[in-house]
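Today's session is about reading a structure prediction critically. Students often jump straight to the picture, but the first step is always the sequence itself: look for stretches that repeat, for charged clusters, for runs of hydrophobic residues. Only then move on to the predicted structure, which in these notes is written as discrete structure tokens rather than atom positions. Here is the chain we will use throughout the hour.
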Amino acid sequence: MGRFARLRAAGVGFVVDLAAQPVPVVVHWGRDLGELDESGLAALAFVGEPAVLNNSVDVPRRCSVWPTEFEGWAGTPALEGHRGGIATTPRPRLVEHTLADNRLELVLDDEITGLRVTLVYTMDSSGVLSARATLCAKKSDTAEPYEVAGVSTLLPLPSRAVEVLDFTGKWCRERSPQRTRLGHGAHVRGSRRGKPGQDSAFLMTVGTPGFSFGEGEVWALHVAWSGDQRYVVEQLPETPPVLGGGELLRAGEVRLAAGESYDTPITYFAWSDEGLDGLAARFHALQRKQSRPPRPLVLNTWEAVYFNHDLDRLLALADAAAKVGVERVVLDDGWFRGRRDDTAGLGDWQVDITVWPRGLSPFVDHVKSLGMQFGLWFEPEMVNLDSDLARQHPEWLLGVPGEPGPPSRNQYVVDLANPEAWTYLLTSIDGLVAEYGIDYVKWDHNRDLHEAVDHTGRPVVHNQTLALYRLIDELKRRHPGLEIESCASGGGRVDLGILARTDRVWASDCNDPVERQSIQRWTAQLLPPELIGSHVGPERSHTTSRRTDDSFRLATALFGHAGIEQDLTACSPAEIDKLTAWAAMYKELRPLLHSGRVVRAELPDDGLFFHGVISNEHGLFSLARISTSPAGQSWRVRLPGLSRGRDYRLRIRADLGLPSMRQVRAPEWVTAAIDGWVRVPGSVLVDAGVAMPTLDPGQALLLEVIVDRA
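Below is the predicted structure for this chain, in token form.
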């Protein structure tokens, strides 16, 4: 290997100068610079070295792979920590490096901290760069362990990256975007909830001014960790802007004695010169490497029956689901001992024989006899004080011993890092999965982790998260076909750490399609549609009380891993017919929706969304009116992602009914497209666009596109 190490894939390049002192320096991350030889790479480093400033250290300030004050770095350091109040000034040196199969491993040795750091960068074929560090404590003259206060993986950005997009949110309004201009200082987002939370930064993106779905150069970071997180983008007057993050550690949480090690979460970095859709395409390609069977149409019982588990009613619900075309039925909260409401029972994972005198078998067997899979709801990490588990094992609860603090949804948290508690949960869930042949687990998590300390008072969010991973991994090992959904009061735990071992997320507890349009639009910035649970609910949303037309609810739920969240036995024959048509449409379009490229249009009207999923030959678009707007016309809308050099045919899908419109007459092409296919050159669709009808609020129009082979 020469002076430089390069990782390249899918038009992305990452270059490290291994000869830089005191540790290697990242000299490029972004567009692939082509087949540069060693002299070309040397020129890249030479012309990129910054000036030595007045009133500054007498060496250029650059972003190394492990920034420290020893280099004159005044920003966020790679490592924060100490050994008994000293050893706070790391001075790592490169001692080993290997480069193979688009994977770069750097080993740094630090005599001051007594740590050996192994940094691994891997470039996936999607162009997504992953980074991870392992800190190992060497033998020391002192018995004092090294306390790790924080580790951040940081990459440099060019000065043209000046606009920041990240997310916030709340229950039933997850992943709400927010933008800010990057000034001098640090833009820091942290989560101290024991999970990413509904207000998670989710995906921190920095780009050129005004970047949009289809345009602009953007750099992004995702922390693949299901516990406390930290994201930072920082620009100081004398140093390059940097983007990075990692696990947010509590005081005393990670203390390394000789021979012990700490693995950081994986951080994923992505670059695109095709705006946010280009970034999404990279992350979707990364996650689609795992082969999954077709995503079955789901019926979840929660909004149909809540805690009222009456066998006859549930059998009738299953019958109705099978007739509609449902492929998986999930029995939600209320089946286990003492669980007649949300004040009791959590932790006692045994079937309540007062409600289910013959166990779950009569219902499970009926569901399977109808050709559907069976799923069951659990919330393994939580416990009610009114439960046998809490009464018999109070030491299994997280919190200040004897003073548990305020409940949330009447519940507290089980210490998964306690081996006995972990074994109890594994045995309980494993036994039920085996007994009933459970195909699917809806894994919920309905509160933040406050005062997350074990019975000794030690903070344990880090160990809690690792224990969660081990629990899920062991269940999957014992039951290879088992699928698991990550739900956390809806979308409170949506990250690539949990999705490395689960099969989808529940994006939000809100099924109101007006809210869901935005929630799903932005969840898809990281996750492909097939990993996003998207269910159609009843006319009146139980989280917003808003009433919406069934056609709008069905069109919205189509663009994800679709399901039903309502009482089918209370539906009219006309409603059942429409749900049946929708189920057939979902199955017809599932291969496209769950493999194609997600595209979104940037429209001047904030009340109008236009998005779709396209392949080389086929596409489905949705025009959704969320609210009214001052403009009378929707005007021409350009169809993103299509090819200018091809001809296409368009038609409007009326399977779910046509939307109501606020106009005397629709554009003529709309009438023609309802009756059949309309031929349009690709250049017209891509560059000029088509005049859209004026929809009423709470309405959606589905537009199908195929390549014209005539």
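Discussion point for the tutorial: The two ends are 54 Å apart (CA to CA).
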